[in-house]
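PROTEIN DATA CARD
Card holder: 6-phosphogluconolactonase
Chain length: 236
Origin: Corynebacterium mastitidis
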Amino acid sequence: MPQIRRYADLDALVLAAAEETARVIAQAQDRGDGLARIVLTGGGAGIALLESLSAREGIDWARVHVFFGDERNVPVADPESNEGQARAALLDKVGIPAEQIHGMGLDGAADMEAAAVRYEEELRRWAPEGFDLHLLGMGGEGHINSLFPHSAATAETRRWVVPVYDSPKPPAQRLSLTLPAIARAERVWLLVSGAAKAEAAAAVAQRRNAADWPAAGARGAAETVLFLDEEAAGAL
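Structure generated from the sequence above:
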């Protein structure tokens, strides 16, 4: 079962997650090749976490590689771009080398299948042993990345990156890391805030069917943690 950590509100959740993320980065840099590999997420809690990390001292960003759990088929400058939001909240503010920011390279006119193959090759090159941490937001229906209930992307069992052509949330075209890709992370943390997500949070805590609740299928090799504010924990 996933670990459950409850906080009074979103601010407290973000502060705790930022402290833990800094710790995970430092630990990863003390072993292996000295690099930390983190998958970023968007959404309200995810971007708040990135903003909090940008203000923290003592993180060696020069030895961090960042990846993305999903992306919309829009240019980075588009307000809908996850990479663009992450750059504004964190990446453009800290000393992370440009070549260590592994964006999905979409531009609004991309060949989605080719882009999926290309990004999976990127993961195999730069994160061959997986990720130290995969951060996830979650929708009220339990979607994570661009894995929505009862979708082919959620049912994928082999590929690490797939194109999504029919996202119920616009824009319809996206790339997404899959549940097998998420499972390559040592730690998987879900950042969940608000009463509208309480039912989905309970489904994750109970390890319900991932086809119905995709977030319930997100599991880390060493740990899976639900970071919940009190509203999101209301159905537990």
